[in-house]
Amino acid sequence: MADQDVDRSEAATPFKLKQAQERGQTMRSADMVAAVVFAAGMVFLAWQGWEATVALLRLCRFALDHAGAATGETAALWPLIAIVVVQAGGVLLPLLLLLPLAAAIASLAQTGPVLALEPLKADFNRINPATGLKRVFSARTLFDGARACIKLLVLGLAAWLALRSLQPQFHAVASQSPLNFLQLLVGDTAELGLKMALALWLVACVDVLFTRHEFGSRMRMSRRELKDEFKNREGDPRIRARLRELRRAMLKRGLALRNTRTADVVLINPTHYAVALRYVHGEMNAPEVVAKGAGQLAGAMREIASRHRVAVVQNAPLARRLFREVDIDQAIPAALYPQVAKIIVWVFALREQRRAATSWAAA
Predict the structure, then answer these.
(1) Are residues 41 and 95 in the same domain?
(2) Following CA atoms 185, 187, 193, 196 in sequence, which dihedral angle do they give, to the nearest 10 degrees?
(3) Average of pLDDT values for 4-21?
(4) pLDDT tens readout for residues 267-276
């Protein structure tokens, strides 16, 4: 049994994955989010980088021209500062909206919508020096450090290859005007950034695969944990017992209503009890109880009996005694033979009279 507790050989159940998600534990790759955000920034730089740069340069020129004309009082500069901030915000607003949107899309694509408050709770283990030292010298930290070095090497190689392809343009920089030099710098930066974004995206794809594998391994369960989860999800034993009682009551109700249709007579205690009896001469030694009920079930049995032309006899003492002492599909006790026999004989005689009357009417 101990090996089953230690050996986590079973995949995590959806219930455990849902609980982990509620605690904020998801298979989310931070590298993928960083790659998408960086790529979005580079796309914006390649698409609107030069136009945004020109707009900011014009805004700087406007601010310098009007700052010289302002008086020495500080209050006179506030309207100019407000204009500069509003116009700069208008230029940078698409970028400021694009980056958070890209981060949100990258996160949602990996984990779906997650709203967990548990990571925000105070956890003093995070500031515990002993716990911090364990994290620093753990195998996980060494692996993360090695992975960071590999990513740095890949990004450095991508940057070197991109700069190498731009090397022929460096000789023509000296002959360019300041404005053309700036335009060339923005374009080359965007091209370099897009190539690095591609390399970063490849690294992120590998990290996503590793993160999914690591999260799946961390969430694996032992057979004992699967059994415990099943027991816990079933709920309290008293609740399970109550549910079983309700299921038995429903089955009993259905059986009582179904058997009442084929009974010979239903004994009632006007409103509280109903007991259905059946007797087949030559096949049964004594009449048997085929259905019984109390309260609403007794009322339903009376309705079924009247609907299917089953005789209903009011005998309160006999109905109560049969209800308490005889179970369904059991024969009545010998002590009750005389009372029940009178009723059965009367019911059979009444049935014969009805058949005779029907035959006479048909003739």
Answers:
(1) yes
(2) -100
(3) 68
(4) 888 778 888 8
Residues 225 and 344 in one domain: no
In a shared domain, residues 256 and 222: no
DSSP code of residue 274 = E
Distance CA 203, CA 197 (A): 10
Cβ proximity of 35 and 248 under 8 Å: no
- The reply to whether 36 and 175 lie within a common domain is yes
pLDDT, one tens digit per residue, over 240-289 is 777 778 787 777 777 777 888 888 888 888 778 888 888 888 788 888 88
pLDDT of residue 5: 44
Query: Is residue 107 in a domain?
Result: yes
pLDDT at position 131 is 64
| Radius of gyration over every alpha carbon of the chain, rounded to an integer in angstroms | 43
- The 3-state secondary structure of 7-51 reads CCCECCCHHHHHHHHHCCCCCCCHHHHHHHHHHHHHHHHHHHHHH
Instruction: Please count the structural domains in the chain.
Output: 2
Burial of residue 226 (number of CB atoms within 10 Å: 0-12, 13-18, 19+):
middle
82/197 same-domain check: yes
Mean pLDDT within 127-153: 71
* End-of-domain residue from the set 202, 232, 262: 232
Structure tokens at 106: 């990258």
By residue range, what is the domain housing residue 315? 252-362
- For the entire predicted model, the pTM comes to 0.54
One domain for residues 101 and 27: yes
